[in-house]
Each structure stands twice: as C-alpha cells, then as structure tokens.
Design brief:
Radius of gyration: 18 Å
Order of helices and strands: EHEHEHEHEHEEHHEHEE
Shape: globular
Structural class: alpha/beta
Number of domains: 1
CATH architecture: 3-Layer(aba) Sandwich
Helix content: 40-55%
Largest sheet: 8 strands, mixed
Number of strands: 10
CATH class: Alpha Beta
Distance between the termini: 44 Å
CATH topology: Rossmann fold
CATH superfamily: NAD(P)-binding Rossmann-like Domain
Length: 263
C-alpha cells in the first residue's frame, strides 16, 4: 500500500501559493496549507474539496513572521508524512533605504529570511534521507540581480538564492535523498505590488507591461518540481523560463577552502 504523503505550501492564501495549491491538488496531492488569513485558507480548502473531494486538505493559520510560530507550525505539519515543502510566504518593499519603514524591514527579514531558513533546516533534518522528497524555496529574479528601489527586498532574496543553492550542493555532495530547489519569479501579478508600494490599487500593465500570472508561475514551479535541475529562473529581459543546475559562483572545488583535520 502506497503511503499517503503531503505537500506543504506556505503563503498559500493568495498569489503564487494559491495557484500552486490548485496545481498540486490537480495532481492528487494531499496538502497542508499555511498562511496568516484563516478565512482565505478555509475558502481555498472548500474550493479544492469541491473539485477534488478525495483529497485531505489541512489548514494551519499561522503568522510566520513570529519566530515561535515557525517551530510550532513545523511540528504540527511534521505530524503528517511529508513529501514536499514549498516556502512561498514572503513580501516585498519598494523605496529608498533611507525612506524604508524599520518595522516593515524587521517583519520582512523575519518572514523572507528567518522563517524560510528555519523551516528549510527543520525539513532537511527530518527528511534528508527520505526518497522523493523536495524542498522548493521561492526567491526572485531580484535574488540574482539588484533592482533599483528594492535593495532590502533583493538582499533578502539574494539570501534565499544563496542559501538554497548552497544547500542543494551540500545535499548532492552527501548523497542525500532530498533535493533542494529555487524558483525565481520576475514580475508576477499578485498582491505583491500593492504591499510593496503601500497602495490599495496597483496596475501591472502600467508598472511593468510584461509580467506573468500566478497560474503561469505555478506551472513553472511544476516544471522545476518535475526536473532534475536546481534553479527555475525567469529572465527579466525576455521573461522566458530557464532551468539550470546553479547560477551563483561556488567555491566547492577551491583549494582555499577550510581544511578539516582527519582523524
């Protein structure tokens, strides 16, 4: 009998997380959905169950910007047999650094960096030797290119890219069963624009002209999930989707690395 396993998606109440939940449900995956807004999670759960009544949909309303909640929600999710963990929760911020709100910076660092790192590490510790498991962290094209007026946001996503690429290399080097991967979207039509700019309305046609929908990004995520590659990257100039094994420079084979003493 095949063991029933679950896919965890953080930031599942809207945007890329919402469409990713729909995409994995279409594949018959049982889901654990995490986000702050319980009413949105309940709406999504009911929607998915109407379309896929045989699935088990677990919702865990949680504010991941609070550190203690990160450990608690992981323990709740880990009570189920997990197959894939997708760290999608995060938000952006536009503006000159001198004008950025410190409270918003603090919350963004907690969510984009701290929560993602802790959840990734907890998942790796428990599942690194479990076959067919995957960790997918959502970075950004701005996690590989500095974007004007988005310096702090880009810095958080550079961390996500570097952390996940490094982790992926480490897992491969140690013959772990778990694979770690990075999805790096460019402009995507979500609530991101409103939150990042502190506005109630945001027109992606005026702001970017070219962008992807959340559904398109979920489809790209599935391509990354199905592949043996580590990076799924949106080219900011052509808006094409590119799969690769890595984009950041690495010192894996450098003779200048720390030399550990051998017993």
């Amino acid at each position: 009998m095949v063991k029933q396993t679950y896919t965890v998606i953080t930031g599942a109440s809207s945007g890329i997380g919402y469409e990713t939940a729909r995409a994995f449900a279409k594949r018959g995956k049982h889901l654990i959905l995490i986000a702050r807004r319980s009413e949105k999670l309940n709406e999504l759960k009911q929607e998915l169950l109407r379309e896929h009544p045989t699935l088990d949909i677990v919702i865990l309303p949680t504010d991941l910007s609070i550190t203690k909640n990160v450990y608690q929600v992981f323990n709740e999710a880990a009570a189920y047999p997990l197959e894939t963990w997708i760290n999608n929760a995060g938000f952006g911020m536009y503006g000159q650094v001198a004008d950025n709100e410190l409270n918003k910076i603090e919350t963004m660092l907690h969510l984009n960096v701290e929560a993602l790192t802790l959840l990734s590490t907890l998942f790796v510790k428990k599942y690194q030797n479990v076959p067919r498991t995957q960790l997918i962290n959502i970075s950004s094209a701005g996690g590989y290119t500095l974007v004007p007026t988005a310096v702090v946001y880009c810095a958080t996503k550079f961390f996500v890219s570097a952390f996940t690429e490094g982790l992926a290399s480490e897992l491969l080097a140690t013959d772990a069963k778990l694979r770690a991967k990075v999805l790096a979207p460019a402009a995507t039509q979500t609530a991101f624009g409103k939150i990042a700019n502190n506005v109630s309305e945001y027109n992606y046609d005026q702001a970017f002209g070219t962008y992807h929908t959340s559904k398109e990004m979920a489809e790209f995520l599935l391509q990354l999930y199905d592949s043996d590659q580590t990076i799924g990257y949106i080219n900011r100039d052509s808006f094409t989707f590119e799969l690769s094994q890595g984009r950041l420079p690495t010192a894996v084979h450098s003779s200048s690395n720390q030399k550990l003493e051998q017993d």
